[in-house]
Each structure stands twice: as C-alpha cells, then as structure tokens.
Predict the 3D structure of the following.
Amino acid sequence: MFRLPTTLCVLLLTSMADGEALELDRDLTDLCFICSCSADQTTIDCSRRGLTEIPDGFSSQVQKLNISNNDISVFPANLNKFHNIVSLDLSGNQLTAIPENALHNLSALEELFLSRNYFDSWISLNPNDVFLPATSLKVLDLSYNKFRTMGNLANLELIISHSLETLILEHCEIDSLHGRSPLSGLTNIKVLKLSFNPLVRIHSLISSTLKTLDVSNCALSRINHNELMYLPSLVYLKMSHNYRLELSASAYNLFSDSLRYLDISYCNVLQPNLQGFPNLRRAILNHNMIRFLRSNEFENNTMLEYLDLSYNNIGSLKSDTFRGLTLLKYLDLSWNEIATVPQDTLLEMPTLTQVKLSRNYITNVGHLKSNSVTILDLSLCEISSIGVDALEGLKSLVDLDLSRNLLSHVPDGVSSNTLKFLNLNYNRITFINNYTFFMLPRLTGLSAIGNRFTAIWKRSYFDSNPYLERLDLSDNMWRCDCLDVNMYDFFEYVTLEPSKKEESYNLICNSPMSMYGQTWLSACYFIWNPTAKTPNPDSLIWFITIMIVGLLTCLLLVNCIRRSTQRRLAAIQAERERQVEEARDRLRQLRMRAEQEALCNTPDPRDLIAPPSYDEALTMPKLNASCHSLNETGSGKTRRKRGRRKTKSSGDLLEETERNGDVPVGGVELTEISDDGRRANRPRRQISRYGSHEVAELEQSPGARRRRMSEYNAEFNEPNGDVVTVEVQAEMERPLRPRLRRYSNDDGQPRESDF
Ligand SMILES: *[C@@H]1O[C@H](CO)[C@@H](O)[C@H](O)[C@H]1NC(C)=O
Ligand SMILES: *[C@@H]1O[C@H](CO)[C@@H](O)[C@H](O)[C@H]1NC(C)=O
Ligand SMILES: *[C@@H]1O[C@H](CO)[C@@H](O)[C@H](O)[C@H]1NC(C)=O
Ligand SMILES: *[C@@H]1O[C@H](CO)[C@@H](O)[C@H](O)[C@H]1NC(C)=O
C-alpha cells in the first residue's frame, strides 16, 4: 500500500509519455513488483500471493505465467494480449467457469493448468469453443475438479481441441463415461489420465489417436472384451489398483493389437488372459490372484519381453506354460507357491536371461534347462539339496542365488562352466572340501555368510578357481586353532593383498571359548607372529600408549631439568647476592675501621703546623703575658673552638697562642675529659706549670706529643670515653710514622717529631 503513491507517480509519468517502450516498462514494473519475474522477464511467478485477479498490465513477452494458488474466482479477462504465453498455471484458484473467449489470441499457449478449481460442470467451461483459439494447446490439466461425469450429451460437453494431446482428469470424482465418445472432439488426443476416479467402466472411449490410458486406482471391475477395440492406437494401458478388476474369463478375451504395455497389478486377475494382446511387450500382473497358468498361456504373446507374475498364487508350472514367449527376457515368478519347475519350462523361452523364483516352495534345484538364463534367483525357497548336475542344464548361468534356503550340503563337483557368482548365504552348510567348487572354473564371487562352517577352509579348496576375487565368510562358526598351519595359510589366502577376498574383521572365531568373538587375527596374532611382542590390532594402541607415556616422561624430565636449573640458578644468584652482601658488609666494616683508623690516625691539625724549631722559637716574639694569664684564659670553649679550627694558619695559631698566653697542656686535657661527667672522679694527672720556654720545649718532647694525641682522640671519641686513654695508648704503640709523615711532609724530610 505504501508503494501506491510511487506506483501512481509512475503511472502518471508513463501515461504522459506515450511511447510503446515505456508502456512495456510500466507493465513489467507493475508486475514484477507483485510477482517474481525471471531475469529475462519471460517467466513470472504470481503463485501464492492471495490475488483475487491478475494484476493489471502484463507484457506480451511473457511466456510462462504462474498464478496458481490464489483466490481468483473469475477467469481473468485481460489475458488476451499475451499472444506469446506458452504456459499458464491457474490451478488452486476458485474458478467455476471459463468464458467463451477466455483464451482468445493465446495461440502460443501449450500448457493450461486448471486443476484444483471449483469447476463442477463441463458446460461452464464452454468446452466446445474455449480451447479452439489456443491452437497450440497440448496439455490440459483439469484434475481435482468435481466433474463427476464425463459425457457427451448432445455434444455440449464435448471438449473440442485439435491440438490437445494430454488431458488430465485425475481425482475428478468421475464415476462414468457415457454418451458418444467424450474424446471425439479431441482429434489429436494421445494421453488420457483418469486415475483416482470412481470409474466402474471405461466403455465408450473412442479415439483413433489415444496411446496412453491411465485408469489406475479406479473402481473398475469389468472390461468387456471389445472395450479397447475403439482405441486402435492404444499402447500403454495402466489399470493397476482396481481391486475388483479381472480380465474377462469369458470366451472372448480383451484384445488390442496395438497394446504393448499393460499394467494390471494389484487387481483381481484370476487368469492372465493376455491372448488378445499379440504385440504386448511388457505385462505386469503382480499382486493378483492367479492360481495357475495353463498350457500355452502366453502362446500368442510372442512379443512379450518382460513378464511379472510375482505375488500371485501360482502353484505349479507346466513345461509348456511359457511356450511361445520367444522374446521374453525377464520372468518374475517370485512370491508364488511353485513347488517344482519342470525341467524344460525355461527352455521354451530361448531369450530368457533373468528368472526370479524366490520365495516359492521349491525344495531342490532340479535340473533346469536353459541356454540363455544368466541370472537365477532361487532365494527364500526351501531348497535343501542341489544335484551334482543341477546346473549343467543352465548353459549360460552366471549368477545363482541360493541364499536363505535350507541347504546343509553342497555336493562335490557341482559343475558349471559359466557360473561366476554363487550366493549361499544363510543356509546350513557345515563343510566344503577341495572337490566342492573344483568344477566351477569361472567362480569369481562366493558368498557363504551365515552358515555353519566350523573347520577352517583350505586354500586348496579353490585350486581350480583361478578367478576367485571375492569370498564372503562372515557370520560363521569358525573353530580357531592358531597352531594349525592351515589356518594361517587360509587367512593369508583370503586377506592378503593384492588378491584380497575378504576383510579380516569378518573372520571371527566362535570356538574355543577363550577366543569366542575375536577375529582370527587378534586371536592368533601372538602365535602367528612369535617375534611380535604386541598383538597387531592392539599394536597401534600400544604404540600410542607408549608414545604418550614417553611423551609425558619427556615432558616431566624437561620440566624437572628446567626446574632444577632454575633452582640452581636461583641458589647461585642467592649465593652471589650473599657474597656481594658479605663483601659489602666486609667493605663496610673495613671502611668503618678504615674510617676509625683514619680518624684515629688523623693528625692533630695542630700537627699540620710544624712546631717551631728551636731556632724559630728563638726568633719568635716574646710573650708579654705570664704563664698564669694563659691558665686563666684556658676555658673549654675556647679550646674546643681552637680544636675545630684545624685549618688555621700558623700565624693565626701563634696569634691565638699569644693571646691566650701559656697553655697548661694537661689542664686542657683534664677540662675536656671532665666535660664527660663520668670522668669527674678520675684521678687527675698533676701537671706542673711551665714557663713559655719550657712549654716550647715540652711541646717537642714525645710525651707531650702523646698527650696531645690522646687529647685529640678524646675529643672525637667522646662516646667511648672510658677506653679512650687506653686505646689511645694502644694506638700510640702502633707505628704512626707514615701517616704522621704524610701530614707533615711539607718539608719533605723526616722531622724530629717522627718517632
Ligand atoms: C506454479 O507454482 C507452484 C508453486 O506455487 C508450483 O508448484 C507449480 O509447479 C508451478 N506451475 C508451473 C507450471 O510451473
Ligand atoms: C491479439 O493479438 C494481436 C497481436 O498478435 C493484438 O494486436 C490484438 O489486440 C490481440 N487481441 C486482443 C483481443 O487482445
Ligand atoms: C492365438 O492366435 C491364434 C490366431 O492368431 C488363435 O487361433 C489362437 O486361438 C490364439 N491362442 C489363444 C490361446 O488364444
Ligand atoms: C583334494 O585333497 C586330497 C587330499 O586331501 C587330494 O588327494 C586330492 O587330489 C585333492 N583334490 C583336488 C581336486 O585337489
């Protein structure tokens, strides 16, 4: 709806521009908006769009138009301009009628689908005229409408079309065909499908052209012998699933010279009665009620190639039953009740190649004779024995299926020069020997699944079968004796490439109990491979296990190594750090000691200034003040100050010395020590006072120097004051010369003060 304005616009625009091309475009735009168009816009699918009428404006180039499954109830009147339309699908709508001129101009129309509409009378179709303009119409599908009858009342209901070939009327509830032939207006009709109608009779069908008639799944019960007479071209007649239908068993048989294909399966046929079909090629008569076949039953069906009589109740065959079937190739007699097949029965059919006799009551493979049969199916019978010469009469036999029978023994020397495939599955055979197959030189495949073999076969059983390629031996009861050389030999023969005949896993031991259910190989691996340490099927698992274990071990090892390396590295690192720490400690101690030592050995700054020599002293100016005045000024403060002033020039020092006068050296020391209260009680060294000259002299004596040093030490080692003196004394014992010299080497030569 929201597109409406746009559409209107487009419409307006296009109506203003009155070009043919634009008109075309408008049609397609409109159409392809609602429906889906193919790339070349010749195929348009408008199905399932809830349309009630065909959208306006179609292009004439459209070839396939599908408007199925909509809600159209009136046949579209605007189809006329599509003279190129080939296929029109209007099925699944609600049409009840077709106007007379509905298909006017649709001369290209070939297929018209009108199934699943609401047509219920032929007249509403205007059948006389409506299809005439569609001169190419070939297929008309009207199935799933409710016509109920198909008649020809005064020709009003007659569909007239000279081109129509296929008329489909399935599921139309038609129960009768009446009047003069309803097909008389269809002068070119070839196929008529009337299946799934409750038709009881198909009389009054007249058509010289009809080839195929499908009346399967109807309610036919009877066909008069001449009912196909007016269908001279009929080739294919399908009448299956008419459960009551039987071919007339009257003196006159249904006949058709043209019929080639007849399907009358799932009916109620008691007798084939195919005599009237001399040109029949294929007859399908399965799932019927045929109980016996007469002599020469198919005498006149000389063209028959394919005959299916399975799922009947045929109890016996006569040797001349199939006489005359000179072209028959396929005969299916399975699921019947045949007990014996006379020797010569098959000989009557010189071209027969495939015979199915499965699920019958045959008890032995007799002495069937045929020069042509190549495939014989005798499965699911009750065969318990084969004659040694049973196959000799089958000169061309290639494939014999004896599966699911009751065979317990295959006689020695069953011979056939042609047999290639022998199926003995699911019998009760217990043994074979080297004579069993030695007369089957062409044997290529042998199936013996599900039998009761216990003794392992021998390679020599197949000495005469050079072409053997395939052996199926599974599901047997092999008794395994691994020590038996033959077992290994046969195993090798069967499973060894390149001429492998069976998968080794199909060879399974049934006994002894210890080996029950094991394959031959796994049961005997150790014995067959004494050197091998592990059984072969398990060797892979073993290998994998070992690989995994090895891998894990490897991983573990690597991990361990890595971890131990890391640990060692860490230890080394720690050790190194410890050493470094130690070294650092030692260094620190050393440094501390060195510092201490350095401190201990640091010369008194006063030492830096060489004391005046005697001559110098003599030149020095004379002290003005007395020695007493010196004593007066010797307070601790001044002393300390003086001590700190280590870098004073000798001039300064002299100046100070001059200012302070004579310094009572011992007094200074005492003062210093007494600063530390603990020393207060210590006996004081009594120092006499000297004059300035004497001082100078004293200063130079070793004792004075020692005192000065101790004074210096005391000054810097106040905390450990107690030991100061002792330490100092001890230190003094050490050779201090070098250091002293170092500080006092301003004149480069040893001095008096060095001792
Ligand atoms: C038309 O479309 C339907 C699907 O809606 C499809 O089943 C049918 O086969 C189409 N008809 C033709 C003639 O292709
Ligand atoms: C029939 O087709 C012709 C072109 O082939 C066209 O000119 C004519 O209009 C059509 N008739 C109708 C009734 O649409
Ligand atoms: C086979 O056809 C011949 C003539 O064509 C006829 O005489 C004979 O009776 C037919 N056989 C059967 C069994 O109908
Ligand atoms: C079968 O085997 C036996 C020995 O067990 C041997 O004498 C005989 O010749 C063999 N027959 C064939 C046909 O190989």
About this structure: Residues 536-601 form the longest helix (66 residues). The domain at 26-210 is CATH 3.80.10.10 (Leucine-rich repeat, LRR (right-handed beta-alpha superhelix)). The chain has a mean pLDDT of 79.
